[in-house]
Amino acid sequence: MKFMLIMRADEQGVRAYEDMPFEEVIAAMGRYNESMIKAGVLIAGEGLTDAAEGFVVDFSAEAPLVTDGPYGETKELFNGFWIIEVSTREEAAEWAKRAPLSAGAYLEVRRVTEMEDFPADNEWIQKEAGWREEAAARAAE
Questions:
Q1: Domain 1-112: assigned CATH number
Q2: Residue 13 and residue 119: Cα distance in Å, rounded?
C-alpha cells in the first residue's frame, strides 16, 4: 500500500522551523529520507515553496478563479510530503512517527488510491492503465 505523509504546521511549528539553522533542518530530513531509502519504502518526497509563491484555483463560480497566495490559515497549508510504500497502515504510522518534526508540526497520513481500487471494466480506468504503461516504457528508454 502507498501512503502520502503530508507535512503541516501551525504558527508554533512555523516559528520553530524559522528558528532552526537551515543546515540542521536539511541534515535531519536527509537522515530521515536515507532511513526510508535504506528500508526500501520511500517512493517520493518533496518540500514546497512558501505559500506566497503559490496560487489557488477556486471552482465555486461558473468560471474557475485563480487567486495568488498566500491563502488560507497556516494550519491549512502543507509544506511538503513523502510517498511511501509499506505493507500496513500501522507501518505507515510508524514511519510517520519517525519524521524529524517538532511541536506545532504534524503529518496527515492518507492512503494513495491504486488502480485496483477502481472498477477494472471502466473505460477510463483501462485508458489510465495504458497511459501509465506507456509512460513507464518512455521513462525506461
A1: 3.30.70.1060
A2: 41
**Are 8 and 96 in contact, with CB atoms under 8 Å apart?**
no
What does the mean pLDDT of the chain come to? 90
Local confidence band at 77 (pLDDT 50, 70, 90 cut-offs): low
Q: Are 5 and 106 in contact (CB under 8 A)?
A: no
Q: Which amino acid is at 64?
A: P
Q: What are the tens digits of pLDDT across the range 102-140?
A: 888 889 999 999 999 999 999 999 999 999 999 999 999
SS3 per residue for 60-109: CCCCCEEEECCCCCHHHCEEEEEEEECCCHHHHHHHHHCCCCCCCEEEEE
**Cα–Cα dist 125/110, whole Å:** 21
Contact between 74 and 68 (Cβ < 8 Å): no
Q: Which residue has the higher pLDDT, 39 or 48?
A: 39
